[in-house]
Amino acid sequence: MNSGNRKGKVYLVGAGPGDPGLITVKGMECLLSADVIIYDYLANTSLLELAGGNTELIYVGKKAGSHTMSQEDINSLIIERAQKQQVVVRLKGGDPFVFGRGGEEAGELVKAGLDFEVVPGVSSAIAVPAYAGIPLTHRDFTSTAAFITGHEKPGKGESNIAWDKIATGAGTLVFLMGVGNLSGITERLIKNGRSLDTPVAVICNGTLVDQITVAGTLQNIARLSRENNVRPPAVIVVGDVVALREDLKWFEKRPLFGKKIVITRPKEQAKGFVKALSLLGAECIEFPTIELAPPESWDALDHAIQSITNYQWLVFTSVNGVKYFLRRLELSGMDVRYLKGLKIAAIGPKTAEIWYDMGIRPDLMPAEYRAEAVALCFKKHGIKGEKILIPRAARAREILPDELRNMGAEVDVVPVYRTMKPDSDTSRVRDLLMKKEIDMVTFTSSSTVENFSDMFEKDDRDLQEWITGVAVACIGPITAGTAKKNGFSVSLVADEYTTEGLTDSIVQYFA
Question: Model pTM?
């Protein structure tokens, strides 16, 4: 990205409080254009996926008891990279200027004569209470709020917080980085006039799927936090508005809140499923057990395309079959106009949707989305003597072509893609299974089941032990049958054999 006449520039970007969806549009644009991203412990690492392929990523996170790099070294690194005419994004948790030391870094950039911009972020001081159902101000409770550090600069001696004024001077008090000093904070507030019965909430991992909120009063919150093993990062909210939480909490009420669910779909196909479950509160652990690849040879498909007018029917048993077929059709110098006169069968609504998007209505789609149902529908069409093309995966069940041949049709099955077992690192999923921290594993095809088992084959006995107590969700009865053959106890099968149907069944299961 460097050019000879371009000057370096630094963007001090607030990453928001944790939920990656809370980054600003401008912050996202900075990440997209960065040469180097220097990021903090509290910045959600999923935001780094926005960076370009050549962007350098440097972690400089600091947390209690563990400093990757001193602040002075971080300042030097930022300056050094900007002086090399690089676009530097300093990605900081929350907002750079709210207890984020962004002011110190900006000051060093001024001394070095470097160009910089500050891109504000959503501060955890306001976002985390909101995700816990606590409005910082409310006309019936208070019109004032104050933000206070719970961890003053080490070694500076006496506190410069005016506790005698702050204790009762604002209706709502928000303390950041104060968990380790919670007892001291409550004692000082009580000593300086705040009532023992003042409601208090401590919110750990705010805006994330493992958010935990402990509520109490100034008198007992320190004890309750110890009993609930509350650890940083956390936000402390003091004030009568905390009492509104029971009615207003929304984030933690979502039906899948806090559930860890493994997604085994191919990464490029999992986005919609992951988004749907995440919006319902689940933490999705993407662990693709299949990846898609072109067939070993295109010869069979190319031959079928060149003689496409010889067929009466095109039958598609997956979205992937349609996509790969149309892509190859285009590469052959043809388009959907060449399919004029052919009837199209689609196994389900997702497969049919691609045709609808092109203004083509499939001629056949069964009410039940599996091969047996497709075959049953064909019995009504009188296909004896007709020629049928099935573009599909290289490995698939033979039930459909066999049934169509039994009805007297001439059937050509051509591979348009193949599924492969990815060379994935199983350590994270293995570790979570061993610790019994997985609530559910989802399977959307027989291949996802078989490859999941194969990827743990060296630990086969252990896998059966680890997955005991973990719910197994399958998209349909065929996948469920494969799961049972592989030793899994199936907890649920979707009523409708789509990811939307599977999502609904998962919600019902946990309800």
Answer: 0.80
